Amino acid sequence: MTFFSESVISQMFRTLDKDDIPVNDGIDLLQLVLNFETKDPLILSCVLTNVSALFPFVTYRPEYLPQVLSKLFASVTFEVIEESKAPRTRAVKNVRRHACSSIIKMCRDYPQLVLPNFEMLYNHVKQLLSNELLLTQMEKCALMEALVLISNQFKDYERQKAFLEELMAPVAGLWLSPEMQRVLSDPEAFISYVGADNKIADPVLEDPSGLNRSRISFCVYTILGVVKRARWPADTEEAKAGGFLVGYTPSGNPIYRNPCTEQVLKLFDNLLALIRTHNNLYMPEMVARLGETFAKALDMLEVEKNAILGLPQPLLELYDSPVYKTVLERMQGFFCTLYDNCFHILGNAGPSMQQDFYTVDCLATQLLSSAFTNLNNIPDYRLRPMLRVFVKPLVLSCPPEYYETFVCPMLGPLFTYLHMRLSQKWQVINQRSTLCEDDAADDNPESQEMLEEQLVRLLTREVMDLITVCCVSKKGVDHNTTAAVDGDDDEAMVTEVTPPASAELTELGKCLTKQEDVCTAVLITAFTSLSWKDTLSCQRTTTQLCWPLLKQVLPGNLLPDAVSWFFISVLKGLQIHGQHDGCMAALVHLAFQIYEALRPRYTELKAVMEQIPDIHRDSLEQFDSKLLNPTPQKVADKRRKDHFKRLIAGCIEKPLGEQFRKEVHIRNLPSLFKKVKPLLGTDMLENEDGEGLTALFEP
Questions:
Q1: pLDDT in tens, 643-653
Q2: Could you tell me if residue 501 is inside a domain?
Q3: How far is the C-alpha of 482 from the C-alpha of 465, rounded, in Å?
Q4: Looking at the structure, do residues 237 and 255 belong to the same domain, yes or no?
Q5: Alpha helices, DSSP H, located in 492-546
Q6: Which pTM value belongs to this model?
Q7: What CA–CA distance (Å, rounded) separates 662 from 664?
Q8: Does 182 fall in a domain?
Q9: Exportin-5 C-terminal domain spans which residues (predicted)?
């Protein structure tokens, strides 16, 4: 039934006319589902799925909404008998999370339907929140998110602002307390407050600082939920009537104010202090302060390792086990989730609060001194999500008028650092691959090396994707839908790689290239990445980024050494990635573009070409002659590219299967079977045996 309702009912509402929908039958079925009771978490999860699938019928019968809400709220607090004192199992946690998600989905998709019942919903949530131990912090904040979604339907700025102030009052009181400010600002105090310096005798049941961690998580979850969900009306007239519209940009776009801005900005300084403190936890002296039980609290979770390595996640076999078996796993989960959520807040702050956020005093300086502090000690598995969920959305949602004052001062040092870091990482990987196996390899197991190399690849893709979406615009590409790569996209490489003519620099890209230090960092990173051993990153960078960036600086006076370096970088990429058809075609095309555009001004490029192994000098002279002395009848691009490809063939890496192939040359050998020609004059109709063609037709 669950599969049927999920697959059929939504399609039925999408395709059938309103009069043809069997409302009575749907309501009867919903009633039966609501009346069904079970203590089996797996079956209850299926019941919740059916409730969500059948909920569109409630739009025809709103009187059933209270029953649906009661069913969902009962599932939010679901417990197996006598389990409440023990750690909740994964099955129970999944049911409770499923119920919270269903409430959020209902409030998101049908806010007008739920709005008349807002007071009932609000009172029920307040009752649940009054018991600090009844719900987890994520469950509390999920219910608060649902309330914020409904408050968007007030369409009254002052009313929604007052509601959000009331909703966030407990969080503000806790977050701004003197004790919390002290804890969030001092790494040593933070470690002690969350209990990471303790030595636990019973790592399964004993957790004296669990309540402290839950309070920090509650504050961060709530701030994130409000920033992510609070919005102004989509209709400009409604926004204007409700007091959300404050003016227009010079280009005529409306400027809105978010009712959550005042409340969130009050908490902003302590949020940055927490991020700075969390970054400093990775300093060696802070890691040394972790207790014996929590020595690995900052390490990667097993679920993260499995995702990076592409290993399947455990499903039903661990369904009845606790989510976190020990206090160490709970501490690891706390640090991981806290780090991600802090950066999710910053990433959503720009799209949510817009100009009110980007005009915060010295915002770029504050972020550089908090989010980007101590990056040398931040591991790759924490740096990567920071770029994806924080830097990328924050930059893409920034209005153009703040590029000079905010984006460039922040991205310049960041891009410079990222290039230095990735170069060092790839140098280690290259040295490791060239060294023979020796005793030193025993200190770093092969599985750990695989994990480290894959992390470097994923971080490289994240960095190059960030630079690309900041600098290059391509028609038909939505940068916000870029998939988060986790190692399963190596097969996504295509062989049609000619960059589209519409690949141009964005306004932000032009602004960045005007800053000499930023432009240098971006160009060096882009062209250096061509020789890093990640095929997918190489192809994306070659097709989307390198030429638009280089084309922007061509009108200037480039140093001859810089021009030679750009060209050599592409040839190095061919040496490493030439065995892959997609990369080879893209790199050959880029090398051809560079040589054709810059050879007339820089003779150094010819000197580089002459160093290519097995190059035919006469053919090179012929190509140069046609390039420098074009005839009225221009040679077709394809012929010129083919000629150029033959010239640089000596530096194109061959596929592994062909590298050591010995060419076999077979001369003309005598035939194994020699056909005997019949003698002339032999009568085929009558031979000596009397068996000719006539015998074939005898009966």
A1: 888 889 888 87
A2: yes
A3: 9
A4: yes
A5: 507-514, 516-528, 535-541
A6: 0.85
A7: 6
A8: yes
A9: 4-658
Interval 416-457: pLDDT, tens: 999 999 999 999 888 887 765 554 445 556 678 889 999 999
Residue 518 CB partners (closer than 8 Å, separation 6+): 408, 411, 412, 415, 512
Task: Based on the fold, state whether residues 109 and 238 are members of the same structural domain.
Answer: no
Distance CA 104, CA 110 (A): 10
Dist. CA 56–CA 53, nearest whole Å: 7
User: In the structure encoding, which two tokens stand for residue 619, read together?
Assistant: 């053919």
pLDDT score for 485:
41
Same domain, 184 and 325: yes
Q: Which residues of 409-447 are buried (b: 16+ CB within 10 A; e: fewer)?
A: bbbbbbbbebbebbeebbeebeeeeeeeeeeeeeeeeee
Q: Which of 511, 474, 500, 483 is CA-nearest to residue 395?
A: 511
Provide the mean pLDDT of the chain: 85
Kindly state whether residues 513 and 622 are assigned to the same domain: no
pLDDT tens digits along 617-650? 899 999 888 888 877 666 677 888 898 888 898 8
Indicate the DSSP class of residue 515. S
Could you tell me if residue 381 is inside a domain? no
Nearest-angstrom CA–CA distance, 277 and 275: 5
Q: What is the pLDDT of residue 479?
A: 47
Task: Name the residue range of residue 564's domain.
Answer: 555-657
**Helices 446-471 and 516-528: crossing angle, nearest 10°?**
130
Residue after which a domain boundary falls, among 520, 535, 553: 553
